[in-house]
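re the bet — no i am not wrong, look at it urself. input seq straight from the record:
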Amino acid sequence: MPETTVANALRRPRAPRNTAPPPADTGTGESSAGDIDTSYLESLLGYNARRAALSVITIFLQRMAPYGLRPVDFSVLTLIAHNPGITSRQICAALDILPPNLVGMIKHLQKRELIERRPHPTDRRAQGLHLTPSGKKLQRDAQATATSLEQGATHALTPAELKTLIQLLKKVYRG
């Protein structure tokens, strides 16, 4: 997926889906929502991936609101937590983010005192990113929340099915 599509999908909160039964036939000849043929769309990987992603992202946005984190912020903090000293260039490569887009995120996370820059041990030109103590706590709490919401969002899948789904999705985006 191009970055702008991913960014838009991750940044637009969606209202919860209406789960009420479809309206009754009004006699106007129009089809109700239950009569719409979506079979072709449902045969497309992109359609299904987007529907699944929106379902999870909606919950993610709600649960991460208390932390003040968007999905991309959570991803950046998580990479730094699991890779202390990671460089901005490495984050861009891992998350497929353009460097100018990451600059503002890093500044915002620094302003919130969640991350700090330190000289890189082997590259004098680079700076490594590290979580501050408050950044470590926030990331740890947010990661626990993300794990919980993922379990809730995938409750209909067995552990084996979830593992297979993740492996198959990785094959699609890694090639």
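see?? The CA atoms of residues 1 and 46 lie 10 Å apart. told u. also The chain has a mean pLDDT of 86. so pay up
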